[in-house]
Each structure stands twice: as structure tokens, then as C-alpha cells.
Design goal:
- A hairpin with a 2-residue loop joins strand 4 and strand 5.
- This protein folds into 2 domains: about 230 residues, 3-Layer(aba) Sandwich (Malonyl-Coenzyme A Acyl Carrier Protein, domain 2); about 60 residues, Alpha-Beta Plaits.
- By secondary structure, it is of the alpha/beta class.
- The chain is globular and about 55 Å long.
- About 45% of the residues lie in helices and about 15% in strands.
């Protein structure tokens, strides 16, 4: 019997129209979007389904992505009865994993990321930070180069051959040149609104801690794998410190997938817009099955399989 992991993408995967079929064609999807609108004081269907300038602004993106991921997940569970053995998410996607694991209610996950998005948006003035994707260079070599440059660190260990760096703009530019000289095939600057998962966001993480004081955090019903440690979380008191650190720490997605595979996970279901995580997993290993739930019809296909 398959051991299934639900995994959820992070910021950057959003697009206009994501989740619209779940809203229009499932009662649970409509309920989740409408409830989120009432909680946050603005229309999630309008934000996610109609062309606008807000969807790509961090403080709105995070609410939109988590609402969409939860709506898709609940529809999948309702239609198929599929339940995961473990959950995980990439950065922002970890909050969908928390909802899937029973650590937070759906409502509290949506409320928390609204505040998280605002805190991250405001943490660093525009133009002071930067991020870049480093292609085709080993993590050990990247770490060695960055250790000689102050103000830059690894933000994401995505998969073999793709690592993201983050930090002060000048430090990222210097690191980009040195990483190319060290053998990177390409270093691509990312169009982001801040140096996410770098020490520059430490203050935002600390302020998030105050937000989490008002959120009920429960013992996971289903274990999840944390970004910061790439290890299973099984107790409620582990959650808050990890979420605070996650804002300014490296996202260890590759290591998280390797942890789950070592524990016997052989089937990954990516829930949310795009197929980014499926692509990462296929570069980590070819020995597991990977499915995507992005459209309502994907649930029917998965049920057949």
C-alpha cells in the first residue's frame, strides 16, 4: 500500500484564475474562499480569479495561495477519502501543511499568513535586498563561496542543481559573480519584493511570534516535515519556534523530501497552482510517484489511478 505525502507550493506559483473551478463547482471550495473573504475583509474570489495588481504583492499573495491550497486539499479529501501519512510545504506552503496536519485550523492558517505577508512585505525597504537562483552547482561549493561574503545566505535548497540565495543586494551581486566563476551554469536574479529567508527578515520572524501567541497550535494529527530542520514535527510545542525561524532561515525542501522517502513515502501529491514541486522531486529521485492537484479534473484522474 502506498505511503502518501501531501505537499504544497510556495509564493511564486500564483496566477490569476487559480482555484476558480474549485470555487465554482464544489461546495467546500466555495465555503473556504467565502469564509476567508469574511475573515480578511476583502474578496478572495476577486483577488484570485480577476486580473489585478495585488495578487503578486506579498501581503495578498500569501492569503491567496494558502486559501487556494486549503480549498483544493479539502475538495480532494472530500471527493476521494485520500489522507496523507505526512505533509510538507515549500516556505509559505508549510501553512497548508499545518492545516492538513491539524496543527492549525484552516481559518487560523489563513489569518496567520495574512499577518505574515504584511510583516515580510514591510521588513526590508524596496531595493535593499535581492534573491537569485543558482543553477548546476553543488550545495557544498555554494556554501563555501557564501561563507566568504557577509550578508548573503542560501534561502532554498530546492533540488540538485537549483539553489536560491538571498540577502543584501550588493552581497547577492558579489556572490553571483563568484558563483559563476566557481562553475555555476547560470545565476538568475529573481523578481521578488524582498530578501526572503535571509537574516534581513529576522525581525519579521520575531513579530510573527507575537501573532502566533493568539493562534491555537495543536499536536499534529498527521506529522509534518518542517522547512527549517527537514525533520518530522510531532509535538505542538515544536511548532511556534520553527515558524519564527522559518521566515529568516533556509528552506530545506530537498532534504525534507529525502527525509520522507527514507521513511517510506513513495507517493507525493502536490496540491496547489503549478507543478514546481513535482519538478523538484523528479530531480531528487525517479523512484517515487508524483501527482498534481491543480484543476478539479485532476482529482478524478487521481481517483481512477
Amino acid at each position: 500500500m502506498s505511503k502518501i505525502a501531501f505537499i504544497f507550493p510556495g509564493q511564486g506559483a500564483q496566477y490569476c484564475g487559480m482555484g476558480q473551478d474549485f470555487y465554482e463547482q464544489t461546495a467546500i471550495g466555495k465555503e473556504i474562499y467565502d469564509r476567508a473573504s469574511g475573515l480578511l475583509g476583502f474578496s478572495l474570489p476577486e483577488l484570485c480569479f480577476e486580473k489585478n495588481d495585488r495578487l503578486d504583492i506579498t501581503e495578498y499573495t500569501q492569503s491567496a495561495m494558502v486559501t487556494t491550497g486549503i480549498a483544493m486539499m479539502r475538495a480532494l479529501e472530500e471527493k476521494t477519502g485520500i489522507r496523507p501519512a505526512v505533509t510538507a510545504g515549500l516556505s509559505l506552503g508549510e501553512y497548508c501543511a499545518l492545516a492538513a496536519s491539524g496543527v492549525m485550523s484552516d481559518q487560523d492558517a489563513i489569518l496567520t499568513v495574512r499577518q505574515r505577508g504584511i510583516l515580510m512585505q514591510e521588513a526590508v525597504p524596496a531595493g535593499l535586498g535581492a534573491m537569485a537562483a543558482v543553477l548546476s552547482l553543488d550545495a557544498d561549493k555554494i556554501e563555501e563561496v557564501l561563507s566568504q561574503i557577509e550578508g548573503v545566505q542560501i534561502a532554498n535548497y530546492n533540488c540538485p542543481g537549483q539553489i536560491v540565495i538571498s540577502g543584501k543586494k550588493e552581497a547577492v551581486e558579489e556572490a553571483s559573480e563568484k558563483l559563476l566563476a566557481a562553475g555555476a551554469k547560470r545565476v538568475i536574479g529573481l523578481n521578488v519584493s524582498g530578501p526572503f529567508h535571509s537574516a534581513m527578515l529576522t525581525g519579521a520572524g520575531e513579530k510573527l511570534g507575537a501573532v502566533l501567541e493568539d493562534i491555537e497550535i495543536r499536536k499534529p494529527v498527521i506529522p509534518y516535515v518542517a522547512n527549517v530542520t527537514a525533520q518530522y514535527v510531532t509535538e505542538a510545542d515544536e511548532v511556534k519556534p520553527l515558524l519564527i525561524r522559518q521566515v529568516s532561515s533556509s528552506v530545506r525542501f530537498q532534504q525534507s523530501v529525502e527525509t520522507m522517502i527514507k521513511d517510506g513515502v513513495d507517493t507525493f501529491i502536490e496540491i496547489g497552482p503549478g507543478k514546481t514541486l513535482a519538478g523538484f522531486i523528479k530531480k531528487i529521485t525517479r523512484d517515487v510517484r508524483v501527482f498534481n492537484i491543480e484543476k478539479l479534473e485532476d482529482i478524478d484522474k487521481l481517483a481512477e489511478i
